[in-house]
Specification:
By secondary structure, the chain is mainly beta. It is built from one helix and 13 strands. The longest helix is centred in the N-terminal third of the chain and has 12 residues, at about 5-15.
Length: about 170
């Protein structure tokens, strides 16, 4: 037992056995699924994608100082469009598939201020450009997920005939 610990332990015993402990820091995980009002979503290019892949990161950030909710799974109903995001030159020819169709690797991610989450859109980097969207529409990865429209990076192309979407993970 080191000397510093002995001194603290002795002090605790000397104060009639009363020991006050500071509350432990915890994330207080939420069972409340996130909804559209809990999050701010954005998309940026991912410069760290694997060889042969091009990726974009979907960021999920707490919208308020008291946000505490969870996301789990893969965004669904993902579509790419031009304009404001609704039927203005859509990229419906792009097939969107989850990178883990079984969802076995999906774990809940708690979203709080300073604790964002992310998922990725992956495509083959050498495939030909097939569409340049303005926005991506997706359902949040929750039961009966809300649809959110997120600005797509200006001029960033989709390549190939299909893209993969990853499950939400801690950022």
């Amino acid at each position: 037992m080191n000397t510093r610990f002995k001194a603290v332990a002795g002090l605790a015993v000397a104060t009639a056995g009363v020991v006050l402990l500071a509350p432990a820091a915890s994330a207080n995980p939420s069972d409340k699924p996130c909804d559209i009002s809990d999050l701010t979503a954005s998309v940026t290019p991912d410069s760290s994608s694997a060889a042969g892949q091009q990726a974009y990161v979907i960021h999920y950030v707490a919208a308020g100082a008291h946000t505490n909710c969870k996301l789990q799974g893969v965004p669904t109903a993902v579509t790419f469009t031009k304009g404001s995001g609704h039927s203005e030159g859509d990229g419906s020819g792009i097939v969107v598939v989850p990178d883990d169709p079984s969802g076995d690797s999906s774990v809940p991610v708690n979203i709080q201020p300073g604790k964002p989450a992310e998922s990725r859109i992956l495509m083959a980097s050498q495939a030909p450009v097939t569409f340049v969207p303005s926005v991506v529409n997706l359902n949040l990865p929750i039961t009966d997920g809300d649809t959110v429209t997120v600005g797509w990076p200006a001029g960033a192309p989709l390549k190939g005939k299909s893209v993969e979407v990853t499950a939400v993970s801690a950022a």
